[in-house]
Amino acid sequence: MISKRIERTVIRNTNVVELLENLDVSYKRYGDEVRIVCPFHRNANGYNLSINVKKRVFCCFSNGCEKNGYNLVDLVMRIMKTDDRERTVRYMASLANLEIDLLCRNIMKYSYKNKKGLLSFKDSTLSFIREFRTVEEEGEYVVYQESQIREWHNALLESKYPLRYLTEERKLTEWDIENFYLGFDPEEKDIIFPVYSTEGKLKAVVRRTLSEEKAEYFGKYKVIGAKSECLYGLYEAQGADYDLNKIILVEGVFDAIALHRMGYTAVALLGTSISKYQLKMLYELSPAEIILCLDNDSCKGDDENSGKNGVLRIINQFSKAGFNLDEISVIQLDGYQDPDEVPEKEFRRIYENRMPAIDFYLTQQIR
Ligand SMILES: [Zn+2]
Q1: Each residue of 69-110: pLDDT tens digit?
Q2: DSSP of 204-234
Q3: How far is the centre of ligand 1, averaged over its atoms, from the C-alpha of 152 (Å)?
Q4: Do 196 and 180 share a structural domain?
């Protein structure tokens, strides 16, 4: 059994946002607070569990919720619907780059020098999510069928308002809509972005609501499914013979689509953090260059736990996973918030002026 002392060390080193992204939990972020749908009470339908990312404690706003006295490990166990505490702590430790010995006596920093980066990731770590997710899929977990995606796609082509939103407001072309097979769910008033694995298997669905009311309450975007196992746009790029030697990493679906249209191979993380699985996929693709092009607020400003911003955190993750930093560069979007807002000519200029990750790292350390 793992002691409470070790458990506390793991929790203290946990990056809450990274953890939620790896577990495919939808969340809303407000400064130091993230909110998720509470897994401790039945039929929770709002984002009523609030987690403080600095203190790594949480509370639920619902009356009579049974969450009292629980820590972050309990939360993960509840989310994954498992009672295997040791496995959960070991999983969380590996996310925090810590290692617990087999006898559960000691905890130490994972040594990347002796073991070669991601290749040495224990299978147990990567399979943790899969194993427990399979259990979940049999229950209430929503898994969409390809036929549903087709139905939504056809609905989009017949719906004026969402089409106008996509083509006029977001400047998408008919080709984009076909290529990424976008859809519209008329009942929920959501634009649908299917997310495929590199083998073409439907893994997740991104919903972008057009209902102001829903956006206000739940946020504009919601991802359902195993988004941490996908890089949005990779499947589409493979199919269209894009150059997989230079891959641009972006945050959102619209960013990936916009850059694809310009001819770049862009894949979206579907969040501000990169999962271990996404790192592994990139490691296996081994492109000559990976270009980070995150939203502007991820490049600047201060980020919660690590005290570093989103781009620095991702550079760190690449480094720890055994990537060569010479092969990573950074695009900074001065004057724009998202990549998809930047006019093509301007983007090409910014792209050509991208900065080696090492240089970006140094300029951020000096500031
Ligand atoms: Zn609750």
Answers
A1: 789 999 999 888 888 899 899 989 988 888 888 888 888 887
A2: EEEEEE--HHHHHHH-SEEEEE-GGG--BTH
A3: 33
A4: yes
